[in-house]
Each structure stands twice: as C-alpha cells, then as structure tokens.
C-alpha cells in the first residue's frame, strides 16, 4: 500500500497535490459552527446536512467567520465551491468581497459582488449572474435539483461555473464607476467576506459541501 501511495504521488503533478491539501471545508454538515449572521440568525438552520436559508423578513446574510470572535474571515484570491438547491420560486445569492454593512431598509449588503441564485419567472437576472454586472437571461441549471457552483476570484478577475460549465468571465475595469446604490460593488484590495443570503420569507435555499481554496 505504501508503494502504491508513493507511485501515485510521483504521477500526480505537484500543483494538484498542493491544491488537495489546501482546500478548507467551511461547513461541517451538522451545525452553524464557524458561521455568523449579520441580522436575524433564526433565518439560518441546518436541515438534513445542509444550511437552510429562509428569512423571517428581508433580508439576512450568513458570513463565514471561522474562529473569529467578531466579524468574519476575509478572502482575497480564492476558489469557492458550494452545492445548492432551492424550493420553488425562491431568491437567494452568494456574496463575495463583502462586509456586514447594509445600504437600505431591506438590509441588502452595501459592498461586494453577488452571485445570483434566482430563476423565478419574473426575475430577469437568472441564476449564475454576477448581479447587475454580467447578467444571464436564462438559467443554466434546474434549481430544484442539487447543482454545483464555483466562484474563482484572482485579482480583479471573477469567473463563475455552474456544474463545471463557465457562465461568467469578468474582469473589473480600473476606476470603474457604479450607480450610487451599488457604489460598493467592487473588489476590495484587502479581501472581503463570503456570505449566504436569506432573501425573504417566500424563499428557501439550501447549501452544502461548502469549501474554499485560497490562491496566492
């Protein structure tokens, strides 16, 4: 057995071995250890090994906080992966390079980018969109079934994959300007938080197999 492991190590390229060692699991599948809600923590529970996001009123966000006593963990360059599923007619999102600052009475996050999770009939920006930056008119997945989402951030370059299919490839321009209500939609040079959204009482999304790989 030892000889087989050694042979496998010799056959695999070094970057593959390093990546396998550096993936960090963010959710233990049992409870919300390592996660912190900015408001309404009751909006997030664990059901059948997945985080259930269902807001009691608009809207709440669950940040990965790790071992921090306050706030959240910042990620600058990284690959984030999660397996997701929704109940019918649900709205949610995953935020990157964000913080707990809100911008309106509905408590929407003021900073960072949102990966849209919403393919309801009335929604023009479908699942997989980099919300209001690169929008998809059709959803590449069926949200009622588990699907895999991957977000890669490297410098100002953002890529989104759904079930390993690339759907967004975006680079933030230098000195980009946003509408006043979206002024914080920018890459933070210091990195930012990763947050799951519980959008409203009529929406329910599930998240599991959540992990991240920090990039240099």
Task: Explain what you see.
There is one protein chain. The chain has 216 residues and is mainly beta. The chain has a single domain, classed as Exo-inulinase, domain 1 (Jelly Rolls, Sandwich). It is built from two helices and 13 strands; from the N terminus they run ααβββββββββββββ. The strands form two sheets. Strands 1, 3, 4, 6, 9, 10, 11 and 13 form an eight-stranded antiparallel beta sheet that branches. A five-stranded antiparallel beta sheet has the order 2-5-12-7-8, with no helix packed on it. A hairpin with a 2-residue loop joins β3 and β4. It is globular and about 45 Å long. It starts with a helix and ends with a strand. 38% of the residues are buried.
List keywords for this structure.
Jelly Rolls, globular, five-stranded antiparallel beta sheet, 13 strands, mainly beta, single chain, eight-stranded antiparallel beta sheet
Shape: globular
- Count of structural domains: 1
**At CATH's second level, what is the architecture?**
Sandwich
Q: Helix share of residues?
A: under 10%
Report the portion of residues in β strands: 35-45%
The biggest sheet, with number of strands, parallel, antiparallel or mixed sense and barrel status, is: 8 strands, antiparallel
What are the low-pLDDT stretches, counting only 5+ consecutive residues below 50?
A: 1-20
CATH fold group: Jelly Rolls
> How many DSSP H or I helices?
2
